[in-house]
Design goal:
Elements lengths: L8 E6 L4 H16 L4 E7 L3 H10 L6 E4 L3 H6 L6 E5 L5 E6 L4 H14 L1
C-alpha cells in the first residue's frame, strides 16, 4: 500500500461470492490495463482468499490485491454491501465513489476526476 502513496488510486472493494462484483471485474481489469496515471487496487472483502485468488485469473485481473477478511475498510465507508469503488486522489482523499456495480460511464467519470486532479 505504501507504494501507492502520492498517486491517484481507484480502489475496488469486492468479493468472489458477490454477483455484481464478478460482473464488473472484466471492465475494471480492462481499464486498469490501459489506464495511465491512475493505479488500481482491489480489496477482497469478507471473502475466502483462496476463492478470490482462483477467480482473478479467470477475468484477467493483474492489478494489486489486498485481503480484508473482516471488512474493516468496507465498515469505514458506511456502505452495507459490495461492490464499492472509490476514487482516491494523490493526497489520499476519497473524491468520489460508486456503490454497486460500476458502469463504463461511471468508471470513466471516476478516472477522469483522478487524472484531471493530477
Amino acid at each position: 500500500l505504501g507504494e501507492l502513496r502520492g498517486q491517484p488510486v481507484l480502489i475496488n472493494l469486492w468479493a468472489s461470492w458477490c454477483g455484481p462484483c464478478r460482473k464488473e471485474m472484466p471492465l475494471l481489469a480492462e481499464a486498469a490495463s490501459r489506464s495511465k496515471g491512475v493505479s488500481f487496487l482491489g480489496v477482497n472483502t469478507r471473502d475466502d482468499p483462496s476463492m478470490a485468488a482462483a477467480f482473478l485469473p479467470e477475468v484477467g485481473v493483474t492489478y494489486p490485491q489486498v485481503v480484508d477478511v473482516d471488512g474493516e475498510l468496507l465498515d469505514t465507508t458506511r456502505v452495507r454491501g459490495l461492490p464499492v469503488t472509490l476514487a482516491v486522489d494523490a493526497e489520499g482523499r476519497i473524491v468520489d465513489r460508486v456503490i454497486g456495480e460500476v458502469s463504463a460511464d461511471e468508471l470513466g467519470r471516476l478516472l477522469s476526476q483522478l487524472t484531471d486532479a493530477g
